[in-house]
Amino acid sequence: MKRLAQEARVRQGVVDYAEKHGKSEAARKYGVSLSSVKRWSKRYDGTWQSLQERSHRPNSHPRQHSEAEEAAIRQAFVKAYARYGWDGVYAELLKGHGYTRSFGGMYHAATRMGLGWGKKWKRPSTAARRYPELTTPGEKVQIDVKEVPYCCLKGAAKRDGKRLYQWTAIDECTRLRYVFGYEEHTPENSADFLGRLLKVFPFPIQTIQTDNGTEFTYKFISRTEKVRLKRLWQTKGLHTG
C-alpha cells in the first residue's frame, strides 16, 4: 500500500475514535493536534480517500502567466513546436507576441497547460507536413552538383589528376534521376546539363529547385548579370525555387 494511502487510513482511525470518544481524547491518544482532528473530521465523508493529503501548491501566484500570455504560448506552440521544438516556440513568442519572460518560465507554463507530445498533442503525420507530397511528374525537379571523390575515379581521369563534377536531377514525384559529369564546375555546364535534361525527361518540367550556388545563379553577387542557365530556363518558361 502506498504511503499516502496508509496515512489516510490512519487518519480514518483517528476520526472514527473521535466520533466515539471526542476530538480531544482522540488527539491525546494518537498524539496529533486538536486542530488536525477537527479538520479531518470536517473533511471525512465515510471513505479514507477523503482524508488523503492534498496539494500544498498555491492556487495563484503574483507573477503567474496571464490569459493573454497563455493564449500566445498556445498559438506559438501550434505554429512552431512540430518543426522547431521549444526553441522555435520561444523565438516565435519573442518575435510575434512581444513575450518578455524567460525561456524557463515559458516552458513551465506550457507544460502546466498540458502542451507537448502526449495523448493530447501527437506528432503530425506525413500527410500534414509542411512540404506535401507531389503527385504530378515534373512539378518540381531538384538539381545539385557534387564533386566526384578521387577514390571513385578510374582510368585516364585518375591518371591525369583530373577533377570530375556530377550534376544530378531528381524528380520529386517519380524519383526519376538523370546524372551527367563534367570536368569543370561552371555555369555553362549547368546550362548544358539543363538542355540535356529537357531532352531526356519523358515529361515536361514545371519547376526547378537548386541550392542557389554560383553555378546556377548570380543573384547573391550581382544585381544585373544573369548566368546562361537563368536565361535558358526563362526562355523555356520554367519556374525556379
TrEMBL record:
Superkingdom of the source species: Bacteria
GO BP, sorted A to Z: DNA integration
GO molecular function: nucleic acid binding
Region (Disordered): 49-68
Domain Integrase catalytic span(s) in chain numbering: 133-241
Pfam families: HTH_29 (PF13551), rve (PF00665)
InterPro entries xrefs: Homeodomain-like_sf, Integrase_cat-core, RNaseH-like_sf, RNaseH_sf
Transmembrane regions listed in the UniProt entry: none
Name under which the protein is recorded: DDE-type integrase/transposase/recombinase
Organism, as annotated: Caproicibacterium amylolyticum
